[in-house]
Structure formats: C-alpha cells, structure tokens
Amino acid sequence: NAGVTQTPKFRILKIGQSMTLQCTQDMNHNYMYWYRQDPGMGLKLIYYSVGAGITDKGEVPNGYNVSRSTTEDFPLRLELAAPSQTSVYFCASSAPGFDGYTFGSGTRLTVV
Amino acid sequence: QKEVEQDPGPLSVPEGAIVSLNCTYSNSAFQYFMWYRQYSRKGPELLMYTYSSGNKEDGRFTAQVDKSSKYISLFIRDSQPSDSATYLCAMSRNSGNTPLVFGKGTRLSVIA
Question: Is B9 at the interface with chain A, CB within 8 A?
Fold first, then answer.
C-alpha cells in the first residue's frame, strides 16, 4: 500500500518554464489537495478536489492549474514558472469522515 | 487577523520535559481539530484529532480544545529526542469536503 505518491521529488526550473507535479493515491480517497509550504509559513492550500471532474480553488491558486480525470490522480500544473513559486509542494488525500489527511513526501521546486 | 495563529518557535526543551504547544483561531465555526507532526524533509503525519471541545489522550500525547476561548493545545509528556519535529495544528468546519486550515507550525527540539 503506497499511500500518496508524488513525483518528482526535486526539480529546478528556469523562469518561464512549465511543469506538472504528479500525485497518485491508491486508497480510493475521494478528496485530494495540493498545498505549498514555505519556510515558517505553514501549509497554504492551492487547489482541492472532492471527486473526479470536480476541482476548486484554495487560498493561493494563481499561477497553477489542476485537473482530476480519475479518482487516483491529481496533477498540479505550473505555467510560466516564477521565483515566487519556489516552495515545497505537498499533495494529500482523505476519505469522507474525520480521518485526517494522508500526505505525500513532497516535491521541492526551485525556480531560478 | 489570521484564521489560525501558531507560535513558530523554535522551542528547545530537555529530554523528559513536558511540552505545551498551542494554537488560537478566530473562526467559531471550526469544529474539527488536528495535530500533525512533520519531521525534517518529510510530509506531515496525523498525530491526533478531536471533535469540538474536550480532551483526548493517546500515550504521551494529550490534545485539548477550548472552543469558548478558541484555543487548542497539545501536551507531550516525558518528551524524547525522537519528538523533535515541527508540529502543525489544523482545523476545519466539518468532516466533509471543507479543507483543513493549518497553523504555521512550531519547531520543537528535545535535547538529550
């Protein structure tokens, strides 16, 4: 049981480049989330999804896009990368009810 | 005023000490309260959760919620060097599809 898998673990992008952060979960969870974590700033919600085909913006969605075509996958797309997007990105999933989130191990992104 | 306030520390204590970690919040609609532990360069992992007011104990850990004061606490008894991590509080309005709102996290070091 892998839980939540994020790829890649590390990435360096140049300003203006694009990339997709991959997130897959094998727990059949309905809900999936993308957070970014900056030093000393906690976790800020970028986008979330309550099921396949349904996504919604979080606190800091600008510069990002998501899609949810299957229950398992929730990729995060960065278009025109900017230095302000340098961060650690965490994907998480949860089931209905009150069981908390299962987090992936994160993607460390640096934009130079 | 931010929805969730948490002192980022760092907090350094000797092994065996009792540790008190706290968060305050402004949204009276929050009903579900969680504590996550995050080791360096890892994803957060759920430590404890409580619903509404009251206490919950799990081994050396006790979570307290005081909704009248909008204040939650996590106590760690007989702290160990392995408890050294960042502790994040999180909360939501309901157990369904409302995403968690996280505090900034408190970095704890337990010195042997």
Answer: no
Q: In this structure, what token pair is assigned to residue B2?
A: 């931010």
Pull the structure tokens for residue B1. 């005023």
Residues of B in contact with A101 (CB under 8 A): 44, 46, 100
Average of per-residue pLDDT across B12-22: 97
Mean pLDDT of A58-76: 96
Chain-centroid distance of CA A53 in Å reads: 16
Name the β-bridge partners of B23. Answer: B6, B72
Question: Rounded distance, CA B51 to CA B55, Å?
Answer: 9
Q: Residue B56: name the closest of B78, B73, B36, B77 by CA.
A: B73
Are A92 and A103 in contact, with CB atoms under 8 Å apart? yes
Tokens of A16: 């203006």
Count CB atoms within 10 A of the CB of residue A45: 20
> For the segment B95-105, what is each residue's pLDDT rounded down to a tens digit?
666 789 999 99
Chain B CA closest to residue A41: B104
How many whole angstroms separate alpha carbon A31 and alpha carbon B99?
9
Instruction: Give the chain B residue whose CA is nearest to the CA of A106.
Output: B43
Tokens (6 digits) for B5: 């306030």
Residue A63 has pLDDT above 80, yes or no: yes
A30: pLDDT confidence band, cut at 50, 70 and 90? Answer: very high
CB B74: neighbour CB atoms within 10 A? Answer: 22
